[in-house]
TrEMBL record:
This is PAC2 family protein. It comes from the Bacteria. It comes from Nocardioides jiangsuensis. InterPro entries: Proteasome_assmbl_chaperone_2 (IPR019151), PSMG2_sf (IPR038389), Rv2714-like (IPR008492).
């Protein structure tokens, strides 16, 4: 069982979870949780014991030096933090971890038991996958929800993926088995720039969370980092004619398809996010 530090009673908490590994192309999903931990000044309240879930030859511990000059080993693990976002009507539990190497069902059961202890009312899982999508267009985000009204409110583009899954899919299924309302957002990262980071995909996932939580999330340097990332990929394409031709083909495919990202409704949502963010900055 996960031991949780004593925390004040949380107000209708929602859990936001991301895991490094197979589910996290270009670190786009885990970077969302890292960003939220930082901007919301989240406090770590629990960590899962890694001994039963990780192969330390695959996820090796890291040795370093503390500020006091002492040598310290940090073990791979999954941590739970809590935050009270400014302006939010509910608290947030942040789950930041690494996909386990074994005992996935026990892993999920322990995490969900901790969620229940914290009073979690909704679980949101984040993932990222490599896809045939051009870097010059909005990052597509697909999603699933266990509650039909949630899917309708968020206007999710339902995923039709069938095939192998990772810990995000297993965790989502475990929520369904316990009748825990759950939403999953997946960003599509251009496969020809798979190396991390991909701030444009991180921003796309953050936008979905803003719609879900109905708050404005401080973005810090992410917008400029996303623009710099796109400029860098543009330069790469300019230097390689094959890549440039491939990107143009992807753009043509996207531009001739029905794209929710390009719809008036999507543009309106993005403008609403901008207005909310500006109001928050002015307060």
């Amino acid at each position: 069982m996960i031991e949780i530090e004593e925390v004040p009673e949380l107000d209708s908490p929602v859990l936001i979870a991301a895991f490094e590994g197979w589910n996290d192309a270009a670190d786009a999903a885990s970077s969302v949780v890292d960003h939220l931990i930082k901007v919301w000044d989240a406090k770590v309240v629990a960590a899962i014991d890694p001994e039963d879930f990780y192969d330390f030859q695959m996820n090796r511990p890291v040795v370093g030096t503390t500020e006091a000059g002492m040598r310290k080993i940090t073990w791979p693990s999954t941590q739970i933090s809590v935050a009270r976002p400014p302006g939010a009507t509910r608290d947030v539990v942040l789950l930041r971890g690494i996909e386990p190497n074994m005992r996935w069902r026990q892993f999920c059961a322990e995490l969900l038991a901790a969620c229940e202890e914290l009073g979690t009312e909704l679980v949101v899982t984040l993932g990222a996958l490599l896809a045939d999508t051009p870097h010059t267009r909005p990052i597509p985000v697909t999603g699933t929800a266990t509650e039909p009204d949630l899917a309708d409110r968020l206007k999710l583009e339902q995923s039709n993926y069938e095939g192998p899954t990772g810990i995000v899919g297993v965790f989502q299924d475990a929520c369904t088995q316990l009748d825990m309302p759950a939403v999953s957002f997946w960003a599509a990262v251009p496969h020809y720039v798979a190396q991390p980071p991909c701030p444009k995909a991180t921003l796309a996932l953050l936008g979905q969370l803003e719609d879900l939580l109905e708050i404005s999330v401080p973005l810090a340097d992410l917008p400029e980092e996303a623009r710099a990332w796109e400029r860098g990929v543009d330069e790469l394409a300019e230097e390689d004619e094959e890549i440039a031709d491939y990107v143009r083909a992807l753009e043509e495919t996207r531009d001739t398809a029905e794209l929710p990202e390009a719809s008036g409704e999507a543009i309106a949502r993005e403008f609403e996010r901008y207005l909310k963010r500006r109001e928050t900055d002015e307060q």
